[in-house]
């Protein structure tokens, strides 16, 4: 085997291990905010391991969506166009946008769609990398190079600082109920610093 193939195989093995650890990290981050037995839409679900944990541990009914098919589970999953969520209006209790907005070329249609598909009183949970300050920005940039090399995942969107996001959420008709600092991803000091926004519809129409 060539050295390149050895490195590629090693990166793939590490990436598979990280996907499961990542689902556990995401589950711990949102667990207290997801009601038992509720309907969850996981947008940008990648491996779909998180949906499996939500189903098995909280009896949630989960639909996972993504712009590519990287589903490693038997969970319900659909590919979509990255803009229009292919589900009925007011049909979900919780919508998850976990580390996806900086991958999307345009976050505005996704935020508007989240508002459309959430039931009254429903909750949108958005996790993002914190790029506040040069060090955090460098960690996030390095991590995304690693992601690209190990999974082929592309990124078309923008990183924003913790205080830049809320005005985009407000413009789509959401109120930020809570901002939770999650620390470094998977607790690894050299991985991005993460933040979770807990959002509810504020009753106004969105940007459309
Ligand atoms: C860093 S991964 C996050 C995956 C998963 N949510 C997690 O936290 O482990 C970013 C994900 O966003 C997806 N993505 C890229 N563009 C998107 C878009 N326009 N809408 C939804 N998801 C998108 C990618 O395919 C990828 O699955």
CATH superfamily name?
Answer: Vaccinia Virus protein VP39
Mean pLDDT value: 93
Quantity of strands, as a count: 7
Poorly predicted regions: none
How far the N terminus sits from the C terminus, by CA atoms, comes to: 55 Å
Helix content: 25-40%
Count of individual helical segments: 5
**Content of β-strand:** 25-35%
Q: What value does the Rg take, in angstroms?
A: 17 Å
Describe the main β-sheet briefly: 7 strands, mixed
What series of H and E elements makes up the topology? HEHEEEHEHHEE
Characteristics:
seven-stranded mixed sheet, globular, 5 helices, alpha/beta, single chain, 208 residues
Describe this entry's structure for a reader.
The protein is α/β, with parallel strands linked by helices and 208 residues long. It has a single domain, classed as Rossmann fold. The protein contains five helices and seven strands. The chain has helices at 3-30, 49-58, 107-117, 134-151, 165-171; strands spanning 39-43, 61-66, 77-79, 92-98, 118-129, 174-184, 193-201. Helix 1 (3-30) runs parallel beside helix 2 and helix 1 (3-30) packs across helix 4 (134-151).
Task: Describe the protein's topology.
Blueprint: H1 3-30, E1 39-43, H2 49-58, E2 61-66, E3 77-79, E4 92-98, H3 107-117, E5 118-129, H4 134-151, H5 165-171, E6 174-184, E7 193-201
Parallel strand pairs: 1-2, 1-4, 2-3, 4-5
Antiparallel strand pairs: 5-7, 6-7
Helix pairs in contact: 1-2, 1-4
S-adenosylmethionine is lined by residues 22, 26, 43-46, 66-68, 82, 98-100, 103-104, 110, 153.
């Amino acid at each position: 085997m060539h050295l390149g193939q050895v490195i590629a195989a090693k990166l793939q093995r590490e990436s598979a291990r990280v996907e499961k650890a990542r689902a556990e990290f995401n589950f711990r981050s949102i667990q207290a905010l997801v009601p038992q037995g509720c309907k969850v839409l996981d947008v940008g679900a990648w491996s779909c391991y998180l949906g499996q944990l939500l189903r098995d541990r909280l009896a949630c009914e989960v639909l996972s969506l993504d712009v590519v098919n990287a589903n490693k589970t038997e969970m319900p999953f659909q590919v979509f166009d990255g803009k229009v969520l292919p589900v009925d209006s007011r049909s979900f209790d919780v919508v998850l946008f976990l580390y996806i907005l900086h991958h999307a070329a345009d976050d505005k249609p996704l935020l508007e769609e989240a508002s459309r598909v959430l039931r009254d009183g429903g909750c949108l949970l958005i996790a993002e990398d914190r790029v506040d300050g040069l060090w955090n920005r460098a960690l996030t940039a390095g991590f995304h190079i690693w992601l690209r090399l190990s999974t082929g995942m592309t990124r078309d969107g923008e990183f924003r600082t913790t205080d830049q996001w809320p005005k985009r959420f407000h413009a789509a008709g959401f109120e930020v109920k809570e901002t939770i600092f999650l620390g470094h991803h998977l607790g690894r000091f050299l991985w991005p610093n993460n933040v979770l926004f807990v959002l509810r519809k504020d009753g106004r129409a969105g940007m459309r």
